[in-house]
Design a protein that fits this description.
Helix 3 packs across helix 10, helix 5 packs across helix 6 and helix 8 packs across helix 10. This protein has two domains: 294 residues, 3-Layer(aba) Sandwich (Aminopeptidase), CATH 3.40.630.10; 110 residues, Alpha-Beta Plaits (2-Layer Sandwich), CATH 3.30.70.360. The chain is 28% helix and 22% strand. The strands form four sheets. An eight-stranded mixed sheet has the order 1-2-8-3-9-16-10-15, sandwiched between helices. Strands 12-13-11-14 form a four-stranded antiparallel sheet. The model has no long low-confidence stretch (mean pLDDT 96). With 416 residues, the chain is α+β, with helices and mostly antiparallel strands.
Length: 416
């Protein structure tokens, strides 16, 4: 099936990562940055060139498209393949210069634009499994953008494959590229009626063979301290600094537990991600994470009690709390739709590699899509060390992901 097909995923990936699509958590617009639409416009043009007649970019930065069924069978479920276009704000995504390291042999990879940035197999154990592969990195001053432009390129190459092999059967396939996934808004404005899918898969996972079916449940939680301002020359007995309240509060957070740097596997955490303020008002923004949804309320009560105790030491000080639900553990939904996972496992097995079922210490667009009525696990792309200057991806992993999607769509067509 693939012997005569020239994969396009590498060249597409190299093109896409050079477009700056960094999202902005402080923006209130949709999408959070207009530059995300630059990639969206390119993808729409490429999809139309591949025969996707209804490809479109909407006002919110979403790319939609439909590959019609070529099967004689009726009532085949409509599946969607989804990836996000934005890159993380944790590391610069402007001026990405991808570097291809052909036939990697295990040596340290010294990134050319900053030789102090060295990727080694000791730091990145998965690289040991990629000996002989072609490895793509950034040049040392930015992230690469494999998260999730690897997923975007894989889906685009899938459409290219079908365009070149019209005899390969599949049901209707929907394409969805989203903005703002990295800031938790990836499906805020998605039109599921327009999408028209029954089931979905995000392409946003890591190592070859991985199938992610469980995510954190997540809230954002902001603690707002209100102080009393006064002229500093005459502030005795009057001023209460919200900055000092916030500082005392953050300093009192547990050092040996409940933090990202001290937890692993199925352990949750509370994590301050931003602090800002003046004497009169200061804010500490948290992300709250656990695989058990009921634990979020426990953590939020813990922070509430801590903040109130902090404020009690300050004359006139007050505190308020702002909570927003971000996403929930997709496993709660996927357990009700076992064939979504079973078909994915079968597709990975067809590659001849082990299936690695994993829980994600994070979230994907699929977390929220699942609870919006579109069951949606996460599939591998090969992207690794994301959100950092050491980010890398194997070309061969991406090619295998394209094959996996062909197998997966074929299983849905066969079994209906």
């Amino acid at each position: 099936m693939f012997s005569n097909y020239a994969f396009t995923v590498e060249e597409r990936f190299l093109r896409y990562v050079q477009i700056d699509t960094q999202s902005d958590p402080q923006s209130g617009s949709y999408p959070s940055t207009e530059k995300q639409k630059d990639l969206g416009k390119l993808l729409v043009n490429e999809l139309k060139a591949l025969g996707i007649e209804d490809a479109e970019l909407d006002e919110y930065g979403y790319v939609y498209g439909t590959l019609p069924s070529n099967s004689d069978k009726e009532n085949i479920p409509v599946i969607c393949f989804c990836a996000h276009m934005d890159t993380s704000s944790d590391c610069s995504g402007a001026g990405v210069k991808p570097v291809v390291h052909r036939y990697y042999q295990g040596e340290p990879i010294i990134l050319p634009d900053d030789p102090s940035q060295v990727i080694t197999v000791e730091q990145h154990l998965y690289l040991k499994e990629k000996i002989g592969d072609d490895i793509i990195t950034a040049s040392g001053t930015t992230l690469l953008g494999a998260d999730d432009k690897a997923g975007v390129a894989i889906i685009m190459d899938l459409i290219s494959f079908y365009n070149a092999n019209p005899q390969v059967k599949h049901g209707t396939i929907k394409i969805l590229f989203t903005p703002d996934e990295e800031i938790g808004r990836g499906v805020d404005k998605v039109d599921l009626q327009k999408l028209g899918a029954d089931y979905a898969y995000t392409l946003d996972g890591g190592e070859l063979g991985s199938l992610e079916y469980e995510t954190f449940s997540a809230d954002s939680f902001t603690v707002v301290f209100h102080g009393v301002s006064a002229h500093p020359g005459y502030a005795k007995g009057v001023m209460s600094s919200a900055i000092k309240m916030a500082s005392d509060f953050v300093h009192a957070l547990p050092k040996e537990r409940l933090s990202p740097e001290t937890t692993e596997e199925m352990q949750g955490f509370v994590h301050p991600v931003r602090i800002s303020g003046i004497v009169e008002r200061a804010e500490v923004e948290f992300i709250i994470r656990d695989f058990r949804t009921e634990k979020l309320q426990e953590y939020e009560q813990f922070l509430t009690d801590m903040a109130k105790a902090t404020v009690s030491a300050y004359k006139g000080g007050k505190v308020e709390f702002i909570r927003h639900e971000q996403y929930r553990n997709m496993k709660e939904v996927l357990d009700l739709h076992p064939r979504v996972l079973e078909y994915a496992k079968q597709a990975i097995e067809k590659l001849g590699v082990p299936v690695i079922t994993k829980s994600i210490r994070g979230g994907t667009d699929g977390s929220r899509l699942s609870f919006m009525g579109l069951p949606c696990p996460n599939l591998f792309t090969g992207e690794m060390a994301f959100h950092s200057k050491h980010e890398y991806v194997s070309v061969q992993d991406m090619q295998k992901a394209v094959k996996m999607l062909v197998f997966l769509a074929g299983i849905w067509e066969e079994k209906g």
